[in-house]
Every structure is written in structure tokens, then in C-alpha cells.
């Protein structure tokens, strides 16, 4: 299957990250290599790329799409949370640009084995890096072996689904009859759990539940929270961090981290004199998230929910 992923906010990413000749890029979500390709063109002749992705197909696609830069790039199939160990292992210093595009590719959505799309009848897997990088936790395991309370919590927290309680209850009821193994079975269960009006809404009624399970299987929010402090500790002064998120919870994590690290004092408002000793280490390049233009949304509808935030390390 051809790896398909249109790089969103491409011009904005390049303009705001402002890559210069000789600078080094860490791209933790390579995809098809579209963003890296545009940045590498600006870092010629000797800027390096260390690219990571959990999807082996993304690595293969990037090798082809970035072939002209093969002498100055290293691509690895790893989770971007391994950032600190990877840059040490590859002696990849300084890190001048760190970039993540947290979106799901069209290839991953179409993958009939992966099972993250509710539009195909697939096994309930959802592990973006397979068993090798994610372990044995699958969506099937969650819906069949977790408590009703745990399933409710996942769907409510990660999917922000208003009918999470109904869906969790129906999942537990259904699995007593037989194990839930496919995406179609789960969609049918969700359909029984929500009112007719909801099923006629702007987005598919299963969207939020599937999103929540994918996030839980892959620890997506925890991974993002883990890597941000490590990035800041290992980047060069003047280095830029750019992150594209597609989910309000992801964007909130990035926003809060950037806001805290761009302030000198993070004491509670009630504390009259600063006692935290915190020094700001970031300068915000984007005070509000950058969104896709109407023209881009028309060409690529998935870009509608993309939000780009960029900051520069100053300490």
C-alpha cells in the first residue's frame, strides 16, 4: 500500500521554524517525509536530519521521498519518546529544530489490519507501532477486559464523548454474549448506545470512541507530556520546537508546557513573593495556534482541525 500523508500547514511550518543552512532537524513523526523534505531544502548543504516514526511503512516511504538527502539523514523506527536516547546513540548534536505532526495518515486510516477506522471492518488492534513498539495492549483487549468504569473513563477523557456512560455500559453488556473482536462489531454497539439525532450529526457517531481507544492504546497524551521536557533539556539555545496537534487535549498539553516555560515565575497567585526560582526557557513564536487557511482546508479537509504552535529556546 502506498504511504499517503499530505503535509498540513507546510508553508507555515517552514516560515515559523525558519530553518537555516547547517541546522539539524529531529522529526519525530516522519510520515511520508513531507515536512522534513521542505525543511531539509533550507538546511543545505550540511544540515542533518534524524527522523523517527513508529510505522515501518512511513520509514520506507521517507527513505524514497528523501533520497536526495540520504547522505545527511538517519531514519529510525522508534517512538519519539525515545528522543533523549536516540540523539545520544546517534551523536546528533546540536538539535536546532524539533518537530512533531501528531496527525494520523491516510495510509494508517486505510490499513485493514490496524483497525483505527470505523469505516472498515477490521480487527480491533489500533497499535500504531505494532506489538514491537506498543506491546500487547490492543483496543480489543481494552473493550473486552477493562472494567466498565475504566472504559467509560477512557471514552469520556480521551474522546470527550457525551454518551460515554451509555457506550461503556453497552460494551460490557455485549461482551457477556461474545468477545468483541472487530471494528464493525464495536460500531454496531456504539450505534445502540446513542440517540438517532446524534447519529445524524456532522461527525460520525463512532469518531470520538475510536479516537479515545487509539489514544489509550498508544499512550499518545502521556508520550507527548513525557517528551516535551526532554526536548527542552537537549536543544540548542535558539532552537525551535514546532508541534502540530489535531486534538484539543494534545493542543492543551503543548499550550500549557509552552506557557509555563515562557514565564519566570510559576508560583500560585496567592504567593506574595516568588519562591519557585523558575526561569523562563522559551520564547513564544506563536501566541495562538496557527490554523489552516480556507484554501488548504478545501484541498485537504483533514487540515481543518490542525493547530500549530512554535516556540524558541532561550535558556
Structure write-up:
This protein is α/β, with parallel strands linked by helices and 315 residues long. It has two domains: 187 residues, Vaccinia Virus protein VP39 (Rossmann fold, 3-Layer(aba) Sandwich); 111 residues, DNA polymerase, domain 1 (Orthogonal Bundle), CATH 1.10.150. It has 15 helices and seven strands. The protein has a seven-stranded mixed sheet, sandwiched between helices. α9 crosses α10. The protein is globular. The protein starts with 9 loop residues before the first helix and ends with a strand. The mean pLDDT is 96.
What is the secondary structure topology, with strand pairs?
Elements lengths: L9 H8 L7 E3 L6 H10 L5 E5 L2 H10 L7 E5 L5 H7 L5 E7 L4 H5 L19 H5 L4 H7 L2 H12 L4 H12 L7 H11 L2 H4 L7 H12 L1 H15 E11 L2 H14 L20 E3 L9 H6 L7 E7 L2
Parallel strand pairs: 1-2, 1-4, 2-3, 4-5
Antiparallel strand pairs: 5-7, 6-7
Helix pairs in contact: 8-9, 8-12, 9-10, 13-14
Amino acid at each position: 500500500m502506498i504511504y499517503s500523508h499530505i503535509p498540513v500547514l507546510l508553508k507555515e511550518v517552514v516560515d515559523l521554524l525558519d530553518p537555516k543552512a547547517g541546522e539539524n532537524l529531529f522529526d519525530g513523526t516522519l510520515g511520508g517525509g513531507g515536512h522534513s523534505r521542505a525543511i531539509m531544502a533550507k538546511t543545505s548543504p550540511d544540515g542533518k536530519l534524524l527522523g523517527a516514526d513508529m510505522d515501518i511503512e512511513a520509514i520506507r516511504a521517507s527513505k524514497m521521498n528523501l533520497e536526495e538527502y540520504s547522505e545527511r539523514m538517519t531514519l529510525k523506527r522508534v517512538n519519539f519518546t525515545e528522543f533523549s536516547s536516540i540523539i545520544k546513540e546517534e551523536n546528533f548534536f546540536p538539535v536546532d529544530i524539533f518537530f512533531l505532526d501528531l496527525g494520523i495518515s491516510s495510509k494508517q486510516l486505510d490499513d485493514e489490519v490496524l483497525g483505527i477506522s470505523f469505516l472498515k471492518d477490521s480487527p480491533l488492534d489500533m497499535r500504531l507501532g505494532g506489538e514491537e513498539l506498543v506491546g500487547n495492549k490492543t483496543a480489543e483487549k481494552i473493550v473486552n477486559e477493562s472494567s466498565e468504569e475504566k472504559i467509560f473513563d477512557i471514552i469520556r477523557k480521551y474522546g470527550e464523548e457525551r454518551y460515554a456512560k451509555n457506550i461503556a455500559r453497552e460494551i460490557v453488556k455485549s461482551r457477556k454474549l461474545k468477545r468483541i473482536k472487530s471494528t464493525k462489531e464495536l460500531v454496531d454497539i456504539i450505534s445502540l448506545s446513542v440517540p438517532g439525532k446524534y447519529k445524524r450529526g456532522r461527525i460520525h457517531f463512532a469518531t470520538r470512541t475510536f479516537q479515545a481507544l487509539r489514544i489509550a492504546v498508544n499512550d499518545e497524551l502521556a508520550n507527548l507530556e513525557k517528551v516535551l521536557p526532554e526536548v527542552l533539556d537537549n536543544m540548542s539555545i535558539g532552537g525551535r520546537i514546532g508541534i502540530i496537534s489535531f486534538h484539543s487535549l494534545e493542543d492543551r498539553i503543548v499550550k500549557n508546557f509552552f506557557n509555563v516555560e515562557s514565564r519566570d515565575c510559576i508560583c500560585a497567585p496567592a504567593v506574595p513573593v516568588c519562591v519557585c526560582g523558575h526561569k523562563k526557557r522559551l520564547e513564544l513564536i506563536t501566541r495562538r495556534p496557527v490554523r489552516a487557511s480556507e484554501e488548504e482546508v478545501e484541498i485537504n479537509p483533514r487540515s481543518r482541525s490542525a493547530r500549530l504552535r512554535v516556540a524558541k529556546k532561550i535558556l
